[in-house]
Amino acid sequence: MGFSLACKSDPHTLPVTNTTTTNLKNIVFQKLHNEIKLGRIAGPFVSQPFSAVQISPLSLHEKKVKGNYRLLHNLSFPYDNTSINSNIPEEAKTVRYSSIRNAIHTLLHLPTHARTAKTDIEDAYRLIPVTSKIRNVFLCVLLI
Q: Fewer CB within 10 Å: N-end or C-end of the chain?
């Protein structure tokens, strides 16, 4: 079970590092540990968990609040036709959001006692499980 990317990439391994992650490795370790604790990622692995893998680099980007960082898994690397993102068909990566008019229309046509809820989707992409068939293209390596 899980989300499928429809990615047509042949897995390959490219050892990569990023100066941001090297200089701020304690922050990277903390963020990775938190993701593992929350069950959003697996690892670390003693040996390669899949026979064919594609490794994409991690990087840190500072948020608006100085000293707060966002950990990014760069699926556009190596910025050519071998990256994960470049191998997702256009029709599979197009997102269309509902308009406010559409949302209001839907709300106005709900039964009288219907309940609604909203949620913050800050961690949405990390909460979506991916199918086991494509987990081998989501690997990252922290080179220290």
A: N
